[in-house]
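Could you join me in thinking about how sequence relates to backbone shape in a protein? To get us started, please write out a protein record for me. Would you write everything just below, so we can both look at the same thing?
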Amino acid sequence: MGRNKIILLPKSKRILTDLGENIRLARLRRKLSAEQVAERANISRPTLLSIEKGAANTSMRAYLQVLFVLGLEKDLLKVAKDDTLGRKLQDISITTKTRAPKKNRDEQEK
């Protein structure tokens, strides 16, 4: 059996392309060659170039290793950290017990 082909929506492709470009810019800001980063990340140079192009078939492990080399691994911890939609959905499904309204003291004395 062969592998299933990964089909990405245009928006997803754009996100990967932007991520790859950000990684490339981070490498260039640090004045590191593609060869140096690939060697330190223990990946091939073509794999690094695939990452920088935002290739969907490149493993998450390779992305993570490059981010470690560039000192950007903590950026991954920010992914889905502030999940406002998830919190709203969770709050909607929380049920609260309803109580009878409290009686006023005036009504109790009658």
